Amino acid sequence: MSSTPTSRFAAPGHPPATTTQFRGVRFLHLGTSWVQGAMRLDKPDNIELEYVQMMMMWMLFKEQPKRIAQLGLGSGALTKFCYQRFPSARVDVAELNPNVIDICHAEFGLPPNDERLNVREMDAMDFVLDPANRNSIDVLQVDLYDEEARGPVLDSQEFYQACFDCLLDDGIMTANVFGEFSNYDKNLQNMELVFDAVVWLPEVHDANIIVIAFKRAPQIDFSVLYERAGDIKRRMNLPAKNWVNGLKSWMQDHQE
């Protein structure tokens, strides 16, 4: 991987956003070696990283969301994918670091805001506490890391309660829980205090664990989910069968 950044956005007051490139993939960093996102240069609209693909596993349960919100922009992969693949959906993003927003526009193909896309420089906690967002979101995707990447920046019961309050009655949250081991239990416990059902899939890609949390626990029929997974693979080229396998394994391990 090239050791010197190919691009650097460094407005003061926030960690600088830089890129490196290796074997046709552009990586996003926040002033450290930690990878905060990636894009394959010859497939810029695909989701490159497996754990980021897993953030889309809500598609097994929702076919046509009207409003998708993203907390933490990363390299813009989820935002671009949702904006392009769900043309009837509104996509809102809260990203605290203006350097990340700028580098995503310049180097990662993030489109400009329009009537369906609204990427804002703001704190994720402010977004979920905004009364205007209460009971209005179908899908909430949470991937909040600073430059140290030791664990989610926001992980309190209060935060997850605010996420819950933003969702519609059948809303779903997916979240990336990454970092030091103690963070896993803290995040999962705080989610379980709030959400009706919380499931996590086996870790992938440097200990990223993806959690799916339901405001209202769904009735799960695995034959239906495998059928949907096949459709997602055909239409979206995402490995959705792996997600169903992970859900099935989790349920077998947690049956009491």
TrEMBL record:
NCBIfam families: MFS_SpdSyn (NF037959). The lineage of its organism: Bacteria, Pseudomonadati, Pseudomonadota, Betaproteobacteria, Burkholderiales. The keyword Lipid metabolism does not apply. It comes from the Bacteria. It comes from Massilia agrisoli. This is Fused MFS/spermidine synthase. Keywords: Polyamine biosynthesis. It holds the Pfam family Spermine_synth.
